[in-house]
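Need tokens for this chain, all 271 residues.
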Amino acid sequence: MSASQIKRVAIAGLGPIGIKVMQALDEGIPGLALTAVSVAHPEKPRPEIDRLSRKPAMLPIDALARVADMVIECAPAALFASIVRPFASGGKTAVVLSVGALLQNWELVEEARRSGGQIVVPTGALIGLDAVTAAAQGDIRSVRMITRKPPEGLLGAPYVVQNHIDLEGLREARKIFDGTAREGARGFPANVNVAAALALAGIGPDRTRLEIWADPALDRNTHRIEVEADSASFSMAIANVPSDNPKTGRITPLSVIAYLRKLNAPLRVGT
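Here are the structure tokens for all 271 residues:
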């Protein structure tokens, strides 16, 4: 593959997701080259970067689009628009993990459409997204998602804080939210990106129903989806092992890596 065919990749955010994706790119994914990363505190030592065989440039967010064709967004939701907009409006690709923030910045989809860019939502921690996408080509009557998480993974969520929900010392499972996926994404921006992805794959954020439970008996983030459609009725469940960040499952960065490997693979499995 010639140098002109290599797609340049930037990563915005080096938490558990960004680090794992960065390491995979450094080890080698055909057709891709890591050119830059952006972090909140560039002055801090970054041993994970020092261990790379090919060190990327460390740049501010607003400089990434000048040196990359694609960005992997895995930063706090508050930074979503500033990361994604230059790529969406510049005819480039943004792979986004803060999917809930996309619902609050929908104009970026229109910018990508006008410029020929693309916003990609990887499967992430949600099983069955391909099945929901396929069912949406017909008629889906209802979609419900039930998320259960250890209480520590929900601490600090805006909905929890605003409603004075006490999760400390919880002894039994407690349902703390029941509403739409759009409302859930707004109230739990770091917790239910999977619900936003499910909504975008299916019948939209205002018709997709979401329950969130804090369960002290769990040590994994669990998601169950129930779908009624004219093509099939199905339910699926997954229990994700948390990463170093209890709000994020270990499978999430692996989903991004799987997407990147598909880009130039001779065999592609799944929608």
